[in-house]
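Both lines are retained for reference:
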Amino acid sequence: MNSMTKERMNYLIDLLNEANYDYYVKDNPKITDQEFDKYLRELETIEKAHPEWKRKDSPTEHVGGEVIDSFRKVEHTIPMLSLGDVFSEDEIVSFLERIENSGFHPKYVCELKIDGLSVSLHYENGLLVQAATRGNGVVGEDITHNVKTIKSIPLKLKKDITIEVRGEIFMGKETLKKLNEERIAKGEAPLQNTRNAAAGSIRQLDSKVAAKRNLDAFLYHLPNPLDYGIHTHHEALAFMRELGLKTNPNNRIVNNIHEVMDYIHEKGDLRDSLPYDIDGIVIKVDSIDDQLQLGYTAKTPRWAVAYKFPAEEVLTKLKDIIFTVGRTGQITPNAILEPVIVMGSTISRATLHNEDYVLAKDLKIGDIVSIRKAGDVIPEVVEAKKERRTGEEKEFKMITNCPFCQSKLIKKEGQVDYYCPNPLCPARHVESFIHFVSRQAMNITGLGSQIMEDLYNFKFIESIADIYRLENKKEELINLEGYGQKSVDKLLEAIEKSKSNSLERLLFGLGIPHVGSEKARVLAAHFGDLDHLMAATKEELVNIPDIGEVIAISILDYFHDEEHLKLINELKELGLNTTYLGQKVIQSEEFGGKSFVLTGTLEKLTRNEAKKIIISLGGKTVESVSSKTDAVIVGSNPGSKYDRAIKLGIPVWTEEEFMEKVEALK
């Protein structure tokens, strides 16, 4: 079924409304936050494309939640709106650029996004008279009797003032740990996480139960600051502290995009060491006057955004398992997934490697599966959530014939993989073309796998070189169904632009066995141009860090093949660049072939600048500390990576020490 249909929209609205009820009313969520976010985004996309379909009960019309009858209803004088969520650093940059392109050049306040329950507190003449949940943003629930048990929320302010303040009620990690130990001892089920525990505690009818839960709170918002002569958000935070209210000590004023990113990286590193859970970073325009001019959408402010940390492992549906044929004829099963955001990237497909892998994990089509990024890069299916099965799932069955040429598959002795034995199988050619234009290779926008298959089937492309001859078939392309003048012009422009790529992209795109994107960069940086690489001896190749004998032989074999040499000459004649455009690698004992981790906030360099320096000296950077890490470079507030380095006995360099080592090589 086309995902953008009225039926799909109705299904998503019903599913999300039920999820809201389970979470906000019953305190018993049936789907994860990640799943909720994914479905909500899909619904927003459909409604944007078809506004005429939109239902009045759509969750996109509401901030979320429903008032339960057990609590008195409270109408918010000023609506309690949710913040818009973003899930990648690119989206943060877009948010900030949108503000600055509108003529504003503000300071921002960055705050930790506490994982808890929003609350509004009303004080009259300094005394706490009412506390309410967000509810649906307009009407919430009166939870005053439970909030009064939270010791960090004063019953009386330090000034006799009438005011409303807003913040987050949460449960600390240690509190949850102790509470669950007690529940397990009593034979009760442990609570899932600090947020659910806080939400469940604050909605207890008996305040004695809430009092035992040792809840806490941070205040972060003054809805009407101008009434108190306050013109910036950071002044509002200071004002609330003066009144005796608790604010988070990690709040920071920043001046630009770079400082926002530094804050995000720094606090992301500290996340595990905090005594409470955070699930992201909130970025707000500091000036109240700027906030008022930027205004609001129907449900979110335009002057603030919540960046959610990438989920390390998320859930989605395994919609299908399809089979692809690689350049060597290897058959690979692939998971087709409902699109899901994993560590900032949208994932809709993941390799399942081979038949044994699928059977060992007992995967069925229709399963809810957990996904993570192996090594922070490659999407991986971790497991099927068997408790979520409905009985409608379909068993996996390995194919026996090639899906392209129908040749009987073979399985080599002692191996787990099946192969198509047909050297003329068209899939082998198509896969090599798709690889050549992929993002890490020549990065030709608009040439996705489906379009490449179409161009091959229509005989527009019969070799890699033909990609650069498509200009000669422009009129024929325009006349194809689904193309047209504008899309063809964009495609040809992207193809022409790719001719200027640095050598490492071309090397990776050629598909030399065992030469991945990183090895291609090492080779390009070492030799400088394609001709020098093609003339290299085995001895020269094996002496390059990370290039062993197997890779060296593979490179030599590739460049001794007449067909490959013919292709390279064609590409040169068509105008493709064959030189390395990056910084020349200087091999050094201190950096060559070694792995480095960057953590904390660097003062003189950005992280990207430090990474480029390390790479230029023959080293590489990785995200996590392990026994294979050669050194950890730390800035201020280094966090858990620093602690792990000390525990493993890995050398730790300050930024100053790092720069001294770099300078010594000049």
About this structure: Confidence is low (pLDDT under 50) at residues 62-68. Residues 6-25 form the longest helix (20 residues). The chain has 24 helices and 24 strands.
